[in-house]
Amino acid sequence: MNGSQLLEKNVGKLVTSVGAFFPGERVVFRGYDLHAELKDLDWLELYLLGITGRRFTSKQMKVFHALWTYSNYPDARLWNNRIAALTGTARSTGTLGIAAALAVSEAQLYGWGAVLRVSVFLIRTKAQLDAGEDLKDLVSAEIKRHRGISGYGRPIVSADERIAPMMALLRETGLDGGAYLKLAFEVEKILLDGRWRLHMNYAALSAAIAADFGLSAYESYFFGIPGFLGGMPPCYLDAADKPEGQLFPLPCRMISYEGHKRRRWKTI
């Protein structure tokens, strides 16, 4: 079937398996009646159902909630929160501020872009190990290819304060025995024993947990999109509550300028 035939096949209709809205009657969400069968569903469980089409156990949902909760920092110095706060101090709208802050949250080095890459790495590496390859060789090859491994190393400090409470919760729920979680720590051991000296960060831990719960790399990425959201509105509101333009002001004396000197513009 060529392109025009594919287009013609979909003229005037939506072919979908995710759901539909029947005005004045009902809404179908992944095969369930939204207002009847899912009316008491936790919002995050609904969000994950939309992404994966699957339901999760109460213990898994407790961990999913914690994965979000532990990354909500109301600190306007953080890269994405700063954008939310700057829109507040500039008197822009909350929707624009939060949307912009979420957009930059998928930063490749330290945002959800990193989670996507380490998810791909862990899932691919486990498949290679199951096929008989050596983990040290795989780690070395990954570093040689990308000059590092996403999910390992942290710009400011080596320790990640979220890992200890998350591991405590996994032990409490009995979900600390997953194959991907074990693999993530084995990779960290290789990196620490070698010349790289890189600790695992929250991206690798999150990706490993999601993979153990059956999420693909792309599903893990979509799960994480609102993961920093809770810290953004406080930063916006705090900045908006202060005099306009007072957040992180930058005086001219702090700027090194090497261009033209001040010029007088002739008026006609």
Unreliable segments of 5+ consecutive residues: none
| CA-based shape | globular
- Would you list the SSEs in sequence order as H and E? HEEEHHHHHHHHHHH
Strand residue content? under 5%
Structural class: mainly alpha
Spatial extent as radius of gyration = 23 Å
Question: How many individual β-strands?
Answer: 3
Q: What level of helicity do the residues show?
A: 40-55%
Distance between the termini: 66 Å
Strand order of the largest sheet: 1-2-3
Q: How confident overall, as mean pLDDT?
A: 94
Assembly state of the chains shown: single chain
Q: Determine the number of helices (DSSP H or I, runs of at least 4 residues).
A: 12
Mind summarizing the main beta sheet?
Answer: 3 strands, antiparallel
Please tell me the total number of domains. 2
Summarize the structure.
This protein is mostly helical and 268 residues long. The protein is built from twelve helices and three strands. The relative contact order is 0.15.
